[in-house]
Amino acid sequence: MALLVNVWHLRKVAEASAKPCDICYKPSASVLITPDRKAFLYICPGHLKDRGFCSPIIDEAEVAAKRKKEALDREIEIIKREYEEKKKKKQSKEAQKRDKNTEKDTEKDKNAVKSNEGDDEVEKEKNGKIEALTAKASTSSADESPRTFALQKIFYQKQLDRIRSAEIAKRNRERLKNPSLFPSVPSGDLE
């Protein structure tokens, strides 16, 4: 019998396949499973946050990916602010031009049409930058909750005992099916 490693991965199942939580017996679609898929247990998401039940195993790659996503979000925010500043500057320039050119209504209409075209170009540029950054970020969609856990000693031992008892029951069933293990009827005379 190989020992069970105390590393459990969180998986989600369909709501229709939900089974009772091993702790509180409420229906749960969250499953903790070992990497070798020998053992699993249904568990409520609330129990995963309980430090008395399990503790998350922090993956450095996930932390680095989270930091990278935060940096991308900051870059997107900076681009949005730059766009807003450019837009405000253009609107203030247009307001100054309108004050100077109040006599020429036809030129004002032409300038308004040109400024709308300029706004569209700036907005397209902003959207292009944001889409490029979000495309980078979408490749690594990180869930906020941890995905790998280690059970506390008591619960881990409970899982080991359950696996051992299942193996013993299986061996006993196989022994009962084998007729050579039963004693044979005596074949001698009764003298």
Give the helices and strands, then pairings.
Blueprint: E1 8-12, E2 19-20, E3 27-28, E4 30-33, E5 40-42, H1 45-48, E6 54-56, H2 60-100, H3 105-138, E7 148-151, H4 153-177
Antiparallel strand pairs: 1-4, 1-7, 2-3, 4-5, 6-7
What is the averaged pLDDT score?
A: 81
Low-confidence stretches: 139-143
Question: Strands of the largest sheet, in order across it?
Answer: 5-4-1-7-6
Q: Outline, from the CA principal axes?
A: rod-shaped
Strand content: 5-15%
Supply the number of helical segments. 4
Query: What is Rg?
Result: 34 Å
Give the termini separation.
Answer: 50 Å
- What profile does the largest beta sheet have? 5 strands, antiparallel
Structural class: alpha+beta
Share in helix: 40-55%
- List how many beta strands DSSP finds: 7
Question: Element order, helices and strands?
Answer: EEEEEHEHHEH
Describe this entry's structure for a reader.
With 191 residues, the protein is α+β, with helices and mostly antiparallel strands. The protein is built from 4 helices and 7 strands; from the N terminus they run E-E-E-E-E-H-E-H-H-E-H. The chain has a 5-stranded antiparallel β-sheet with strand order 5-4-1-7-6. A two-stranded antiparallel sheet has the order 2-3. The longest helix has 41 residues, at 60-100. The protein starts with 7 loop residues before the first strand and ends in a 14-residue tail after the last helix. The model is unreliable at 139-143 (pLDDT under 50).
